[in-house]
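ligand=fe (ii) ion
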Amino acid sequence: MPIIEWRDDFKTGDASVDHEHQELIELLNTLYDSMVEGPPADDTVRGLGEVFVRISAHFALEEREMREAKYADYPAHKDDHEDLLDQIRDIMDAYEVGVFGDQRDAFGDNLQNWFVNHFKTHDAKLHRVFGH
Ligand SMILES: [Fe+2]
Ligand SMILES: [Fe+2]
């Protein structure tokens, strides 16, 4: 059962951006499913690290565009990116110390909320302003 379901209101108005967002969600879902209770698996810890890097790279690209364009909402948008990265770090930590199972549903809800809100607000606005 994927923790984040792709929904139409995730769409930003740019098909290639939506495709990339969809890929990031799929990666996270696959990993999340592999995180079972019990001792952490090396593959999953490594996989989480890879997802973290992929998402960071996506954010870095958006942030560079915003800085170059002196985009007024850059600080708020970047703060929201940092918030997701913090949440993923928390998941990685919880998984590595074996308490992930207790908080799985809460983590899932938080991630779902982040994606719904970020795509609908920050990313939709960014891609509308930049026209891509
Ligand atoms: Fe994005
Ligand atoms: Fe963004």
